[in-house]
Amino acid sequence: MTKLKLGPIADDKPVKVALELPAALHRDLMAYAEILGRESGQASADPVRLIVPMLERFIATDRGFVKARKSKAS
């Protein structure tokens, strides 16, 4: 089984997001949502709901950002 970086998406109050995505990125989000749904045993998540956890994960694991943020806070 494939191990994705995201786990199940928390059932949280939805927030409306309006942005333009390249078609290829949208297709990737749709595919990711489908695979995530299969892995978690749930229905496919709305691809838009993947954006926030993906961004949070990206920011949390970006060592350069974490380091810069810590040095700015000091």
From TrEMBL:
UniProt cross-references to InterPro entries, sorted A to Z: DUF2274 (IPR018733)
Pfam families per UniProt: DUF2274
Protein name, as recorded: DUF2274 domain-containing protein
